[in-house]
Amino acid sequence: MAEDPELRRRLDALERRITQLEERDEPGAAPPADAPPAGARSRSTADEDPFWALTALKAQVPPPGAVVYAGSVEVGAGHVEYQWGRPTEHLLAADWAEHAETVAALGHPLRLAILRRLVDGEHTVAQLVDELELASTGVAYHHLSALQTGGWATSPRRGSWAIPPSRIVPLLAIVTALEKG
């Protein structure tokens, strides 16, 4: 039976991570020389390494690398934690056109304004019409339908809309990626 190189790479990375965790948590093991005294607060990881996420990614994933996004956020809709990543080979081999509808759903200012409200929590169509000063519920439903088709919004109850929790961090990651800086 031929060995799958991607599976081997992932298994090797997992074994390295387990070894690191076991060494760190070994009973009676001396703390690292640079560890703060017990009970002392250490500087944040970001202060020590402004590229801490990239450093960790490179330590876990061999070349040609991967893309990962993650978030732990408190928003009006509640606490959400999410992480997703893909190896470079997967991303470059994928048919990007498959994502056109999902991306297109975000391509209207009113849809982004609706999503911004939904990040704060579930809203009724009447609330969205009022908060966004829309001409009618028909306008709201038109844009909510496009967001639903793209996977960005759902209707948990009749007349009420929300962002699925698994889409909140991806949405915030996209907004972050669009910042100029």
TrEMBL record:
Database matches in InterPro entries: ArsR-like_HTH, HTH_ArsR_DNA-bd_dom, WH-like_DNA-bd_sf, WH_DNA-bd_sf
Highest taxon of the lineage: Bacteria
Molecular function via GO: DNA-binding transcription factor activity
Sequence ranges assigned to domain HTH arsR-type in this UniProt record: 101-180
CDD domains xref list: HTH_ARSR
Region listing for Disordered, in residue ranges: 17-46
Protein name in the entry: ArsR family transcriptional regulator
